[in-house]
Each structure stands twice: as C-alpha cells, then as structure tokens.
C-alpha cells in the first residue's frame, strides 16, 4: 500500500515519504528466517569487536566493513541505529603516553611494567572523556560516505550512532543493573543503552555484537565451555558462568545477557539465540540450514538470481542393524527440513522403535510426529530385505533413496530404483600410494592408520601401491613387519609377485574390497603409473599419496578420479565428522551434483527485452 502526502513513517504500512525513501512493512519476528524482514534494527558494537588485539587501537578495517554493511541495509529500506562502545579504548594509548611523559627520568629508564602500571592508573572515565570526541569524529568521517543529511533522523535515510557517556555514567557493582521495577533499566553502559533504545523506539531487532561467536556455558577459552544454541533466561540462567570482562570494555558478557533478557521481557527480538519461552523455537543451527542463499547474482537492473537451500522432501533411508544410526539420520533429516522414512534392520527393531518414538515425542511440539517414521508402520507388507524392492516403486512417497548396508544391497537398490534417485556408494576400494621420495616414517604411520584403525570401514585402505625403488630394505622389511604385527594378511599384486623371491600369496583380483585385516600390495613405476592404476581399479571413494614433492603430489590430486583425494593423510579422514560436517549418513561417489533450487526475482522481466537490446545483462 502506498500513501502520499506524508513526511513521517506509518509503521504498519509500506510508504514513500516526501523525500522519496521507501520503507518496509514491519512485522513480528519469531525465528531466524524472519530476521530478513526486520525494518527497525539496533546494532550494538562491543569494544572488543571494534578494537584490535592490543586493545589500544581501533580495528579500522573491521569497523569500516561493519559500517558498510549497516549502510547497505539502510539503503535497502531499513531503519538502522548503531550503539557503539570504544571511547575508552580509542585514547587509552594517548593517555598512557601522556602519563609516561610526566614520569621522572628514573622511572622512564626502568621500562619494566611501566605500560601496565600506567594503564591501571588511568580509569575508564578519564579515557572516555578524552576519547569520546575522537571516537565520534572517527565515525563522522566514515558517515560522510553515507547519506549526507542530518536534518531528520529515522524519518530520513540516516544511521544514528549513539554512545553512553562513560565520563559521567554511574559506577555500579554489577555490569548492568536492572532494577526491581520491570519497566526500568539503569543505563550505565552501552549494553543497557541498546536495550533501552530497543524498547523506547519499538525496534524490530536488537543485534548485540562482540568478538565471541555466541553464548557459552562459561568463558569460551576454558575447556568444557559448551556452546548454547538457544538461551531462555527463565530456564537457562543457571547454565552460564561468567568470566572477567575485557580490559577496555565496560560491560562484559554478563551485562549483555542481563540487558538482552530485559529487552526480551519487553517483547523485543534479540539476535538469534534468545527466546522467551523454552522450546518455543527450533535451535538456531537447525533453522540455519533451510532457506540459506548459497549464491546470488544480479543478472540485470532489477533482476536478481538466487540459489537457495531447500528440502528434498521425503527421504527413504535403508540402513543396517545399528541403533545409533536412527538419531544420526533423523537429526540430519530434521536439520535439512526433510521427512524421513526408515527401513531398519530386523536385529535392532525394538531399539529402533523406542528411539523413533523418542524422536517423534520431541518433534511433536513443532511438527507432526509422522515427519520421522519407520516404514513398516505405513507399509506392513514390506518387512524383509527381499521386499525392499517394493519400496523403490513408491515414487509417490519417496524423493531420494539412501541405502546403507552391504555392497550387494546397495548395488541392488541402484539397479532397481528407476524413477527415484539414489545417493550412495557400493564399494570402498581405497588406495595409498607411497612414492620414492616419501617420508618413510610418515608412510608407515599412514599405512597403519589407513588399514588397521577400522578395517571394515568404507574408507579403509584395501590396496597399497609402492614405488619400485622401495621394494628393498629397510622400508619394505619395516612395512611387512608392521603389517605382520597388526595381523594383516597380505596378498601380492602381479608386479610384486615377480620382483621378490618369496612373495606373499597372490591376490585373486585387484578389485577386491576385503573389509577386514587383509590388503593387497602392488608395485608401480612412478606417480603416473599409480594414477592410472587407481583410476582403473578404485571405486572412486578415497585415495591418498605419500610424497614430499608438492608439484608431483598436485598432479596426483588433480588427476585421480575419486571423491576424496589426499596428500600425506590417512584415508580414514574421509568422514563427515572429521570434515567438520557432523554425523555422516552416507557418501556418494557419483559424478552428478545434487539438485539445487534456483529462484529469480524481477519486475515483469521478459527475455525478449534482452534479445532485442532494450535491456542488458550485467551478471554481477
């Protein structure tokens, strides 16, 4: 709705005022995905965020980047306010130098602890008094690059920058004193100022920024401090142990939590971690996986292309008799917003039933229980491994099949699933190649870990390739001794069998995935020979080279046709958890990327305008 002849904002409508500035409709924000719709936003910058590690100088690059992002949001129609700390830190160094200039010669010639002692003597009020004008002057210089008008504040495209006057702010025993009266808060630092402003001007969103990436149960640097995905003050306050505040900051994390909690009580959305009612929202890390803009490109003026993460819909996961798979698979499905149909192994059916029921009970607060279910309750006739093929004809109910089990089952699923895509691999025939210039001690460690750490894993080494110059003492003897100690049965490849007088038994095939304490050893002439061998015999899962020469290793990394290719690393690192991606449901060795949704936003654009030259692509 557009209303004319107004010079002030109607907060319930989208309007264009007399200055031609467009403002968005304001709406209530209840979750992370709604943050993009916030109109009036307060951003509080902590001292630790805008100062450098030495705590004396401003982090100009970081600060300028923040201001640039704020200005971009302002230019897109938001109303932005900055509450900034940093006056104390800005000129602490200047006052320290002044203090040193007044020292006697004896003290000046005794440098020990001078800087620390001078810092202790200079209180934050003095630093703020001296530094306030400098801080605001610095911001003033940055703001000259933005909309250059100061006649109106929020009624115009102005970014307001506010700061508590630390020179006259009262000193209290606590970082932020919230009075007994629920509607009052003592403004004695910038955290309390930001909270007060959020309530006073009815802000849609309050972002309290710091150099810590979220809330922890204790100081982040201490071992055992757990990251809190969400925080409900009424329930979770006892979970946090606060540490000391920074040398240049006034508040600290305790002040931020108290002030944010006060604003939350006044119905203000606080960042992405705080929630007023327990279990009101999904944790932030769960919300984050849906609706993310992976790639954005401006095709032309007013025409924007976006690639956005969206759920697949319903997953059918066929897995072995491992009860721990149920919560892992369910968690990944929930995080990605997908429905889940489970076909479990019969040996663990009772455990799986209980685990599934627990998951359904937990989900019932947010979605239907049936979002995660065991397939046998919906399709009772499909209950054995032989009947799995019937699942693959249920195209109406399944959008993606993920088989986890024996190689025979996975291959069978790939073969029978004609209309439903399959994500998975049938074999894990992994190689380690040890070149002649390898660090031999490193090579032995990598071979041992790749084969013996977990022999039945799909990323365990099955074939060891060795450069021909290494088939002699001492390396080859050490290698055989190592495998013998680890009780690994060794089989000779065709080339190794003719190179040594008494070789191990010959392998029946170089395409064997042993899955236990067995492996084949074969000899190659050089790196290129190893690459050709791997591309011929591997299952395209994981292969590794042990070599000191980086250039030759790069050839290996770029030429081997496998899902994971490593240099001087055990093949066992090919794992979702070790990659930092969380629990792994399966790995795909296919060459076709996953389906991605692409959305375009425009203003009635048609291709003919571009074909006939009326519009031009910019592709930014």
Question: In a nutshell, what does this entry contain?
Answer:
The protein has 620 residues and is of the alpha/beta class. A six-stranded parallel beta sheet has the order 18-19-17-16-20-21, with helices on both faces.
Shape: globular
Q: Averaging pLDDT over every residue, what do you get?
A: 74
Tally of extended strands? Answer: 22
**What count of structural domains?**
3
Q: Helicity, in percent?
A: 25-40%
The CATH topology label of the largest domain is Carbamate kinase
**CATH homologous superfamily heading of the largest domain:** Acetylglutamate kinase-like
Give the percentage of residues in beta strands: 15-25%
Q: Ends: how far apart?
A: 31 Å
Word description of this protein:
The protein is α/β, with parallel strands linked by helices and 620 residues long. The protein folds into 3 domains: 29-270, Carbamate kinase; 318-416, Aldehyde Dehydrogenase, Chain A, domain 1 (3-Layer(aba) Sandwich), CATH 3.40.605.10; 430-573, 3-Layer(aba) Sandwich (Aldehyde Dehydrogenase, Chain A, domain 2), CATH 3.40.309.10. Helix 4 (92-101) packs across helix 6 (114-121) and helix 8 (190-200) packs parallel to helix 10. Residues 1-23, 114-122, 143-151 and 173-181 have low confidence and may be disordered.
Topology:
Blueprint lengths: L14 E2 L5 E2 L16 E6 L1 H4 L9 H16 L3 E6 L2 H4 L1 H10 L3 H4 L5 H8 L2 H20 L16 E3 L27 H11 L4 E5 L5 E2 L10 E2 L4 H4 L16 H13 L3 E2 L13 H4 L5 E8 L2 E6 L5 E5 L6 H11 L3 E5 L5 H15 L8 E3 L13 H4 L8 E4 L3 H10 L13 E5 L5 H13 L8 E7 L7 H11 L3 E4 L1 H6 L18 E7 L2 H11 L4 E5 L3 H10 L4 E4 L29 E5 L5 H5 L9
Parallel strand pairs: 3-4, 3-6, 4-5, 6-9, 12-13, 12-15, 13-14, 16-17, 16-20, 17-19, 18-19, 20-21
Antiparallel strand pairs: 1-2, 7-8, 10-11, 11-22
């Amino acid at each position: 709705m557009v209303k004319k002849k107004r010079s002030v904002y109607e907060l319930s409508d989208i309007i264009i005022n007399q200055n031609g500035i467009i403002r968005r409709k304001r709406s209530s924000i209840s979750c992370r995905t709604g943050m993009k719709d916030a109109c009036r936003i307060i951003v509080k910058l902590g001292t630790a965020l805008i100062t450098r590690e030495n705590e004396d100088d401003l982090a100009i690059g970081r600060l300028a980047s923040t201001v640039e992002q704020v200005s971009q949001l302002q230019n897109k129609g938001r109303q932005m306010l900055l509450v900034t700390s940093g006056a104390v830190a800005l000129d602490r160094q200047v006052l320290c130098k002044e203090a040193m200039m007044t020292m006697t010669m004896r003290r000046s010639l005794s440098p020990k602890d001078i800087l620390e002692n001078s810092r202790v003597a200079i209180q934050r009020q003095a630093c703020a008094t001296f530094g306030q004008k400098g801080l605001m002057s610095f911001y003033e210089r940055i703001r000259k690059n933005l909309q250059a008008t100061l006649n109106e504040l929020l009624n115009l495209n102005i970014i307001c920058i506010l700061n508590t006057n630390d020179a006259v702010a009262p000193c209290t025993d606590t970082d932020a004193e919230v009075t007994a009266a629920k509607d009052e808060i003592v403004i004695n630092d910038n955290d309390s100022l930001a909270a007060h402003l959020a309530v006073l001007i009815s802000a849609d969103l309050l972002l309290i920024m710091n150099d810590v990436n979220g809330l922890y149960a204790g100081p982040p640097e201490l071992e055992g401090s757990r990251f809190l995905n969400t925080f409900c003050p009424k329930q979770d306050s006892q979970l946090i142990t606060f540490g000391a505040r920074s040398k240049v900051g006034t508040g600290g994390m305790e002040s931020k939590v108290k002030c944010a909690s006060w604003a939350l009580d006044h119905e203000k959305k606080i960042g992405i971690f705080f929630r007023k009612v327990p279990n009101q929202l999904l944790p932030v890390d769960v919300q984050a996986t849906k609706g993310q803009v992976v790639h954005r490109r401006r095709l032309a003026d007013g025409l924007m292309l976006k690639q956005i993460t969206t759920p697949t819909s319903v997953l059918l996961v066929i897995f072995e008799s491992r009860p721990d798979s149920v919560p892992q698979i369910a968690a990944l499905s929930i995080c990605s917003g997908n429905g889940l149909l489970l076909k479990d192994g019969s040996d663990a059916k009772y455990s799986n039933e209980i685990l599934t029921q627990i998951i359904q009970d937990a989900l019932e607060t947010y979605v239907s229980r049936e979002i995660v279910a065991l397939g046998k309750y919906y399709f009772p006739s499909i209950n054995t491994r032989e009947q799995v093929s019937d699942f693959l004809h249920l195209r109406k109910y399944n959008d993606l099949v993920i088989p986890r089990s024996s190689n025979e089952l996975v291959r069978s699923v790939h073969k029978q699933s004609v209309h439903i895509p399959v994500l998975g691999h049938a074999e894990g025939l992994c190689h380690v190649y040890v070149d002649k210039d390898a660090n031999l001690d490193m090579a032995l460690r990598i071979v041992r870990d790749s084969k013996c750490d977990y022999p039945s894993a799909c990323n365990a080494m099955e074939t060891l390739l060795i450069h021909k110059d290494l088939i002699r003492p001492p390396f080859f003897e050490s290698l055989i001794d190592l495998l013998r100690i680890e009780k690994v049965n060794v089989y000779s490849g065709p080339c190794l069998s003719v190179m040594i007088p008494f070789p191990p038994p010959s392998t029946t095939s170089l395409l064997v995935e042993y899955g236990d304490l067995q492996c084949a050893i074969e000899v190659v002439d050089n790196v290129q020979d190893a690459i050709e061998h791997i591309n011929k015999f591997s299952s395209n899962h994981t292969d590794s080279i042990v070599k000191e020469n980086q250039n030759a290793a790069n050839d290996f990394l770029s030429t081997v046709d496998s899902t994971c290719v490593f240099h001087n690393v055990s093949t066992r690192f090919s794992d979702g958890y070790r990659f930092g991606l969380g629990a792994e449901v399966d790995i795909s060795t296919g060459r076709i990327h996953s389906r991605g949704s692409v959305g375009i936003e425009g203003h009635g654009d048609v291709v003919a305008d571009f074909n006939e030259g009326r519009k031009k692509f910019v592709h930014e």
